[in-house]
Amino acid sequence: MRARTSSVLAASLVLALSAGPLAAPAFAAPSTPPTPAAAAHRSDGPAAKALRDALAMVPGDHATAALVRVGGTDGSWRGSAGVHDLASGRPADPDAVFRAGSVTKVVTAATVLRLAAQDRVDLDAPVQHYLPGVFTPDFDQPISVRQLLNHTSGIQAGDGLGDDFAELYAHRFDTLTPREVVASAIAKGPEFCPGKRQHYLNINYTVLGLLIEKVTGHSYATEATRLVLRPARMWHTYFPGTDPRIRGPHNRGYQRVERPDGTTELLDVTEWNQADRWAAGDMISTTADLERLLTSLFRGRIVPRPQLEEMFTTPAGLPDATRSAGLQYKKVGDITFWGKSGSRYGYSALIGGTRDLSRTLVYSVNATDAKSTEPNPVIDGIVAAALK
Fold first, then answer.
1. CA–CA separation, 104 vs 234, rounded Å?
2. Whose CB among 11, 138, 225, 369 lies 3.0–4.6 Å from 19's, allowing a Cys bridge?
3. Is 368 helix (H, G, I), strand (E, B) or coil?
């Protein structure tokens, strides 16, 4: 495949959420930064060198740690770089758990599709049928379960605990329940008629979490674990709920903030109650677990083949739509890459690959501005190298 610059690739592959540069160095990196650790790689060509070059930027202004797994027919590559935390400067844990953000949606979609395969959910049935009393009369058009999965429902975004980082950080230990989020969204009325547009919003998967609980009579976490995590052998993945901590070995997450005098600092954002993200973004995982999810899912071992097609099918009648049930596709040269990115403050993650698994990529980057839409050279470099 032809080599491309990271900036061009990042424009093509918007799955990778990215972060912007610091106006000034945010912290003093160790005088001898930890060497990027590459292990168990069976290929040592240009791609491997490019991956090492990308990790050589860590720790730095754009990320404090990075964990990468690349696989496929050309071999596999594993690497890690950066620090566990800024105070000690000790090397990042390559097996660390981390916040996976919206990668959670892959698990939620797979859970719903497994229920569909068991004839417990009809993808064409209106969600109003499954959740009576949740929707107001303003939602007079039926919203199918499939339209929730592919973000064409027309439901508006729910409210959060703040409108900017400072406000959200101040409320980081507070609990906003999924039902409260859904109620605030429904109160706004529909944004558009179901099926007429595709608008990616967490609310679609929050409603799917309620549907899973209604249909099964069990918690979302219980069913997602039973139907997806255990079959995929994701032994280190869990849903923290209202617990703000990350259980198990983990690398600290930081957010760049500007001080009143115009200088910047990195604020530790590791502990955070993410309960409102729930079925849309509250999963904690590892790169090894996410790689197992990717390969098991694409091989049809989690969701039966007929229902798995939903994950590789964009909504009919919307030629510009790129999102399916739980995934998004992008064409990069000759490659069609299906995946899902996710970010929470301090953590950026991605899972994806070609449908035949000839090329796969999983990463966790402790980005210093993980919710920014500006390019992050570390993430850009990883993606560019992985798709060479």
1. 13
2. 369
3. coil
